[in-house]
User: Fold these one by one.
Assistant:
Number 1:
Amino acid sequence: MNQIVATYDLSKRYGKAYRVKDVNLTVKEGEIYGFLGPNGAGKSTTLKMILGLTRLTEGKVTVFGKELESNRRSILNQTGSLIESPSYYGHLTGIENMRVIQKLRDVPDKNVEEVLKIVRLEKQKDKKVGQYSLGMKQRLGIAMALLSFPKLLVLDEPTNGLDPAGISEIRELIKSLPQRYEITVLISSHLLSEIEQMATSVGIIDHGRMMFQGSMEDLKSKNRPTIMIKTQNNKQAQKMLLQKGFSSMQEGEFLVFENMTDEQVAGVNKILVSANIDVLRIEEHKKNLESIFMDITGRERSL
Amino acid sequence: MMKAVSLELYKLRHKRLFLMVILFLTVEIIWTFMAVSVSISRNSDYARWEFVIAILSSMNGLFFPILAAICVSRICDMEHKGNTWKLLLTVSVRHSMLYVAKYISASIIMLGVCIMQGIAIIAFGMVNEFGQPVPFMLLIRFLAGTVLTNMTIIGLQQWVAMAVKNQAFAVSLGMAGGFIGLAADLLPGAVRRFFVWSYYTGLSPVTQNYANEKVQLIVEDVNALLPAMVGLIVAGIAIFLAGNIHVSRQEI
């Protein structure tokens, strides 16, 4: 698959502090790339640099295989975007807002009709955008981004402020874009559940640094179950099991074992019972994606 | 460029900017013509084109800086309000191009105002049956001075309106400019030339001179105004370029 977006040691410094540091992000053709991170992690800054809205301090960005700095116009002609809050002219109607972008993009009228239908705004197109709800403004922003049916769509937290029905609607729309229109999507969010449900690849950023990048399957494969055993004498049990080749960690009242087969669990149980150590509980714990995210970012906020 | 300018004018829909401009101009013209009519009724010697032009130049010093500030603010503010800078820049519009398009749009509106003012002067002279024929050359010179001053002030206003989101700054600058424009003639010439708002009267082809409690109207020679014109053009270009470069370098 071709690389649509690639960043090389991308960094952005404000004053002495780096907002983004050495980010290497790769988005391949036809993917929905979920760019995940807590608030203030550097997602928007990275996306702004990819779109040329913010100057890079260090590093390089290529889009469609071309360097951004020298090919910005041709790249942006094939890119649609919605960055942070939706942009609109509140005193103009929905259709007039679309016409502004239509004139700039030089696309036919049928595109306007089609995208308004896709985001289900065709009935509200004659209403002033200032009177739209946040969800409608967000949908209008997506319609503007989609207007030229670009090869790449960059969406920065597009479901911010939407109600659950709106979120699900936008999610289904985004999921359909690669197949229906061959659009590669780069979408950022601080909501893991949102990315989990639509992304095929994922990048996790925290404190301006890329902590993980890979397919959603790779991320989920970190979801290995652990076996937790509670005994009457954990210290003695741990010592004894270590001698038999089973290493564990003490977590609260439990001994935690990783990568154990069913047979090994049965074997551990047998060893403990034979040594007259009462086994009070054996539990299997599966990490959900949320715990994996917290493990990666090392913090428990914004989720 | 034409596309960018027409788009700027398209974006002004529903803003009622043109209505506001016409109302503002109407107030200025009515005020001026009433003042001129009162003078004519007291002394019929004032029934001259030169007098109308001289009074209107002074009134422009008060009204036009404010009008230019409002026009420019309305044109720039819609981008701040709707957060549309990033939208436009991501559809590959260049910052500097947008700046130029907005400048031209504001200049076109203010040019329309100047032309309407010229037509109003001719109509007023005809209704009051001024003895002399319509002095087209004088009117063109009046128009040129006003347009030139407007364009410099628009450049200054646009810089502030684009760089500072809060449009109260830009409008306050316009109001301060209106005050300076009105009172500039009271300042010494060496000081006056540093205030762009003073050029409505500074470049007027007719100046007023008070002697023996009488107003003398002096038609200035074109050559006498040329250095001031050139100076204003240079200042205007410098202000425009500085504003464009500064605003284009601002990060979104």
Number 2:
Amino acid sequence: MAEATIAPTYTPISKKTKFLRRYGMAYLFISPFFILFCTFALFPLVYTFWLSFNNWDGMSPSKFVGLANFIRLFTVDEFFKLSIVNSFVLGFMCLVPKLSLALLVAVAIHSARLKLKDLYQVAYFLPIITSPVAVAIVFLTIYGQQYGILNYILTRLGFHAVQWLVVSSTVKPAITILIVWHEVGWFMVIYMAGLQSIPQDLYDAASVDGAGAWASFWNITIPMLQNVILFTVVIDIIGELQIFGEPYILVGPAGGTNRAGLTMSMNLFSNAFTNLRFGYSSAQAYVMFAIISIISFLNIKIFGRSGLR
Amino acid sequence: MSTTYTTGKQTEYHAPFHIRRILRRAIIYIAVTFGALLCLFPFYWMFVVATRPSGEVFSFPPVVVPGTLLFENIQNLLKMVPFIRSYGNTLFYALSVTTLVLFFDSLAGFAFAKYKFPGQNFLFGFLLATMMVPGLVMIIPWFVEMKFFGWLDSYKALIIPSAVDAFGIFWMRQFIMDAVPTELIDAARIDGAPDFGIYYRIVVPIITPALGALAILVFMGCWNNLISPMIILSSPEKFPLTVTLKTLVALRLTDYGALMSGTFLSVLPIIVVFLLGARRFISGITAGSLQGM
């Protein structure tokens, strides 16, 4: 006599429930990012794209103007063009010393295997953690009008005092010095990390072959760091083109004498929030987006393929 | 008396090898130390100006020794701007964003790292792509939307959109993939642990160092943020430290002692936080950025 076994009752579960049960938590966990992104980034981005074809001052109804904003940006607007030139010049002036110094110091500390390496890292990194406003204020007093401490050092060394922030030709160097000082440590730390991944055998083999320090620097260190250097160049340029705080504090919202310190971001800011031209500045923001994207793309193309020479 | 020389390179006189090496090391030490001192000098100068009467800032020759007037300068500062209020605002803003980011980013990183779900790769790629948009481009869209929401002059506009960030998720995912053994999670699942419990009891304790580094990064970013608060806030008593200091500068007053004491006070917490976690923070940064390549 076989016992009648009771088959468990089978309740059909819908595919949808199965799907949710299996993957629901995962989607839940990642949802905050996508919800926030779509709400606060994607939608506004799309909306301001439409806004760039309008004129709007934030209060009265917007007025459709087609391509007028874009045309005006490229033809009539002096300050926009100047701000782009300024940003590029400033970016280039900052990029080269910043990355070279960072690399040199990183190599120096790493290769000489200095003790107190950590201490040096902390010292060089300290400027980075401070806000652009704070460092710009300190440098305001270092540059001064006529009698800043920097000028004092210069006069003692036999040079003339320079009115750094007043004369338009020295505004950019002044900003450059501040920015280089502010950001060298960041790249130095990145380069040091990269240096640690270079096997020591390469250097040993090179020195057996008679290579001096300089030769092994050019032929081993730089090629091995190629990816790292490319990475930092791209990142840096994108950042440089968007500098706002330092020039703003050093020379004011208008960019100082002859607007020598007017960067793209400062110009955008004044168009949007001082002149209340939201449509126009939306167009400007998109043009800047295009410029930055093209530059990044070009960088990767140029430096990625042929290496750094 | 003739001395026989051997031919070849051995006849050239090089300084003994070890002297050359010592010399080179010395030069490197001096140069690198000089650079480090250059990096540190503005901080020292900030402290000097903050502790001296304002008129001495531009004296020739300059006074380079700290003074005793820190408290007087602070008092003058407090007369000009609501500095303490500003401090509180900044602290509130930075702490809120940091807690939210730590929570949401690690949760999402956990999901991307240890779960498999349809569309995972596409969604992650999308996330990476969002990092390509320069922040500057987002400012006007963000402002316009805050206007629609009615969130102008409120910290909601600053905190909520920043509650999750792509870089943090990327970093967390990387760390969790490396540091959290999947077997551990499987074992917990077999024991019937709920997903959130796994996150809270297994993942979080393991990723604490990465959370610490991310926390410092986010905190720092908020503390030093100028542009967004400057745009969105209009009541001076709501300003964070960066905007308050900028207002002081824009007033073009000549009380540099007060201004610098404010700057000094605003920088101090960050420096302290940084020095406490410096080594771990720096190694976290380098690990994160190297993985970006």
Number 3:
Amino acid sequence: MRYLPLTDTDREDMLAKCGATSIDDLFVDVPEVARLDGPIRDLPMHASEMAVERHMKALAKKNLAAETTPFFLGAGAYRHHIPASVDTVISRGEFLTAYTPYQPEIAQGTLQMLFEFQTQVARLYGCAVANASLYDGSTACWEAVAMATRVTKRKRAVLSGALHPHYAQVVKTMAQFTGDEIADAHPAIQPEADLSGLIARIDDETACVVVQYPDILGRPSDLTQIADAAHEKGALLVVVNTEPVALGALKSPGEMGADIVVGEGQALGVGLQFGGPYLGLFAVRDPKHVRQMPGRLCGETVDAEGKRGFVLTLSTREQHIRREKATSNICTNSGLCALAFTTHMTLLGEKGLRQLAAENHRRACLAADRLEKVPGVSLLNNAFFNEFTVMLDGKPAREIVRDLADRGVLGGVSLGRLYPGVEALEHALLVAITETTTEEDIEILANELEAALNLEPAQ
Amino acid sequence: MNAPVTGPNKSGWKPHMEVADATGELITTTGNRALMLEEPLIFEIGKAETTGVDLPEIDEAAPNRMGGFDREEPIGLVGLTEPETVRHYTRLSRQNYGIDLGFFPLGSCTMKHNPRLNEKMARLPGFADIHPLAPQSSVQGALEVIDELATWLKTLTGMPAVAMSPKAGAHGELCGILAIRAAHTAKGNPREVVLVPESAHGTNPATAAFAGYKVDNIPATPEGRVDVDALIERLGPDVAAVMITNPNTCGLFEKDFRTIADAVHDVGGYVYCDGANFNAIVGHVRPGDLGVDAMHINLHKTFSTPHGGGGPGSGPVVFSEALAPFAPLPYVEKDASGDFRIVEEETTDAEHQTFGRMTAFHGQMGMFTRALTYMLSHGADGLKQVAEDAVLNANYILRSLEDILHAPFADSGPCMHEALFGDKDFGGGLSTLDLAKGLIDEGYHPMTVYFPLVVHGAMLVEPTETESKASIDQFITAFRHVTQRALDGDEALKQAPYFAPRRRLDETAAARKPKLAWSEPEA
């Protein structure tokens, strides 16, 4: 077995040192009735690298990779070009095969990277402090709600109807068990988000308002209005962002008054990977809230010789110290994804991120103009960054998406899939455009949409 | 035959090995020491106008449909070109210890070799470049990977169901406890208490408390196992579940697990097993045969997906028949025609009373492909050998150190895949921490220290199966040497490490006045 260095002679020598005559002597504490004889049944035996590679490649071939086809999916996961050096960096064994930096003297690489990452995230979000990452955007969203309930000592969270429905589901799932009250809604299909409707739902019992920016339909909106309304009632504003590239062009949530900003960092450096591992981002605008934050924090300090160094800090919030009184049960962060994100962000820098954002928006405008010309397609959004909603006449968007996939085009995410059973949303299709989308792709989508919509004229 | 074992430096211990200036400090003009290169922060070397990605210049006259929310203020980021970026992170990487570099016996973390085939497979565009919401007909291979991995996990554990979406071990624990709470609630009463042995990982009580349970600690016996009598005594209709790690964090198999499980089931409770230490028993015993109702499996431990400097992890949870209906959304099913489909909508039948959704998408697909590659490589026979070699290596370390180091449970029988020691008899006020830092100078990543809490100055050593005997022998030699220094009260150990990229870091100062982001130096 190519991964097991012990030889049979080694094993004999070592067993002798342990006073054992066979390996079974070391498993004596496993009750005999439960012990298995021989290799476990119904599973294959070991295989060569070549054989395993063949098996996995056959499975991979059954998937339609985004790079091989016109591709327009978003809704919380975005396909951007990842510079080649990102994979070089995250493949370094010293990063890849390290553990949580519990021994900071020999983990300065991970720690300095995290300190830089925290700074980048905080600045992107317009916040004072970001943590060293959480599992993904959806769990970060829940952690923000939980933190808001700790800070305000209130139990009611008001979710915008235009928050990603899977994020809302995660929040509602967790709240069942903590006893928090979650006020949720579906998005109203209209060109602009319903801010006054949302503001009307904030009351004196509200711990936080959770708003996505840009929202699930791709609409940016004025967070300052919501922040003012929330703060007036003593509630916090939690802003969720699922597309960090957007913040290269849009005002940051922090500068519009958000108290906690969370999001999905996948779009920078991480790749689609069928939904995971991704990267939960978490930041607070006011440094006084730091001690209520979940997850790991990396801080600057000095060593015994006075040299600058970095450590994990404020760990008295965490489960390994506080046990049942911890701010969260989270133990890992998403370290390697944070490294991919921060490497990509370092390559981009201020200039590159702004250019990338501008290029995304420019192409999205081209796509919106072109799709609007397709009979039976209308653009819903008044405003958008790189993702917008189109309304389709005739068949439900879910069916159109399947038809397009059969024709080799991954044409977007149907709101019918995200909101099963909600009739008003059945004809809405979310279309995401990035710098990877070519004008030819847009032309193909327009033509295929036209063909698909014409397959069966509107009733 | 075995490689020769190097001993400690024959010239003895020297805190400062080279000539120094008047202050006793070794000085170079750059602060570098040959291959040990200091690296500033990106904010100190990058520029706002520098970028390492070639993108079109911004056309200010281009259409703008962002609704008037354009960013006006600078973000405050800096960029580096590609050569500067690669050098920055390469230099940082060299200040890190990883398994690729050396022995990393961090107890309870299973720092085994990460096979590179796994990395290669995870990067195939068919896995890496597919969207979680892609039409299901276009991702049948991905769903098949999830289904195939699920089959392996169910078969290896002897459990009928598995939830694949939890993102890490602690997230898996949460999944298990939420399913338990949902199952109790479906019967009319969620119950109040979860019993947790005092040797448990901190995540166990944190998880139970999160799910709204009161946590009662169960003591350990002097031999390092759960006190079965105390546990059974505490059982009653208020107990929702017990959470037990098996093998436990003292490195021992809980012999009476089945007795405990039966007693818990008799009062209508459920048994949660923390599967962090599954590497010791994979292929030898199936948790399902021990009466487990739910157990998370850390794919980044037993199944070798890389730890990545602290994640991402992956924590699928296997379930018994009793808990299976409550598993979270989404999950993958195979229909009659052999097609795979994702079930992501709530239904109301008795077989599917899901407690809800734990994460936006389907779990850690990138880890699934790596773990499946690992399993296929080892096969049923190889995985059995994995557990045997991991256990043999740990016992060999235990028996090679028990004469010099306090080994509180050495008489409790063989250990499983990790050996536990304590700091008894150290001289001169030296502690476990000092010994750990001494091991850093010897070229090792230290073992887990001060965990479990039940042993004073605990040192938990987990060698894993991917170390050679020569590597382990050298570690034993070094460990004995540093232990002897601790027993002798060698003052120099208090200042260790001497040879790491940094000397001991001031964690108190870091916490007292937290500096958690870089800021421009004041002019």
Number 4:
Amino acid sequence: MNTLVAGFPLLAVTVVKVVVLLFVVLTALAYLTWFERKVVAHIQTRWGPYRVGPHGLLQPLADGLKFLFKEDPAPAGAERFVYYLAPFLAMTLALTTFAVIPFGPQDMRIFGQRTPLGITDLNIGLLILFAITSLGVYGVALAGWSSNSKYPLLGGLRSSAQMFSYELALTLSVVGVLLMAGSFRLREIIEAQQGRLWGVLPRWNIIASPFPQVLGFLCYFVAAVAETNRAPFDLPEAESELVAGFHTEYASFKFAMFFMGEYANMITVSCLAAIMFFGGWISPFPPTQAWAWTAFLPAALLAALGLYLFFDGLRYETLLGRTVLPLLGAALGALAAFLALHPGANAFIQGPFWFLLKVLLFLFFYVWARGTLPRLRYDQLMAIGWKLLLPLSLANVLLTSLLLAWKQK
Amino acid sequence: MIIQTILFLVFAGLAVAGAVSLILQRHPIHCALSLIVVMVSLAGLYLLLGAEFVAAVQIIVYAGAIMVLFVFVIMLLNAGEEERTNLSRLARAAGVPLALALTAVLGVIITKAVRVGAAKPLLPTATRNLALLLFKDYVFPFELTSFLILVAILGAVVLAQRER
């Protein structure tokens, strides 16, 4: 092992990073389903998952086990090869996109090697991301076709049409950001947003001169929700008309793979929104002495969460909850204390903290939209994509480039 | 360097295997999937040549857009498996020798190129250089091509609307 690490240091470091990131992302996916069920439940004045573990925290684990042990039938007359290929495509492509996302400004050390926070830093990062997401449509389309069943076929057709209609608006809506940053490298796109407007406001692309990308962001987010097949654009799996759309005939872990792919796509799209329009890991507070206390916000937030968990856990109904929740709260409190007392760790955590907070905010918007908006009709969906988002994003490209050219003169 | 050679062999092998499978498969969807494999491995080869932008565009445009339309149409038409037929007489008489001749010519050219050892990248690597070439030096042919495509789109719309 040691000789292998010495022989291919880059390879070894990358493998370690991939394994760690996969673990983190898969856990995050599992708890995103819990988060979504809880938030939607509270929007509809229900409690959501509550039985499996304290506050339903073990629900994702139970779901995963259930997916593993379910029977896995394939429909008669299904095109076997494609039928098995489709869920693999959907999940692996969705997970691959995390390879190019940078999570923080500082480098870290693995095996004595300095390496950026994030798997790789490509000079065409954004393009590769769009290339991989543009392949994602195959998972859905092929699943619908190969199931040899009418509802999946309709769902697959709908989603292919929907995904390549909205891909256009999605890609065009970020051109403004690219023009302002002058780079496809995600790290440089974030670094181009450093600095302050009037000394206070962060110079994020959403409010930056010469042309604030508000229009671009709106187009991007609407197109992204449609591209990930989420409510209110979840026509491909509209349960009231198509049973479950393209994954009707999938059961067991193959269904779980589609599910994981969908949630991974949600996270990627939220990461991109944070990177391109909201400054990625850049803190919303100015880096001056008067605002230095904001460096302790992550620790304070953790401490508050820990305290809440601790005292809420003491009064919990079940014995498991009364032991686990206070322990969890104490662990969070200890982490907060460590961050507050260790300046190096606190400085390192700033970037990832703001980045993940923004991503979480966008994920909340996703769930919020699902909990509040009714599903669109199919012709309305197409009309929004082609007649509203596409012209708007084109106008955004034109205005941004004109203003940039005028400013440079 | 070893890694690059291995990657080249992998992508080249995948491209050739995909192309062969494209011809041998009998189901249209399998053919389309083979073609996607060819295109993605070509993108990998472009990456190895240092043409990142071309590689990304290859995947976005060909694998991500054009082939999706192919698959979409195959799904809509619900095309079944094709029957295998014998080669026509013309194909047997003219096709086989012509194919052999083409292989021979290609082989000679490739061996010559390898002997010269011209391993310099032919493509402009940075995206900026590519953009300057496209929109400055070769702007007229570039716009002409887009005009051609526009004509094709108009033709398709006119043909599709003929029945009204």
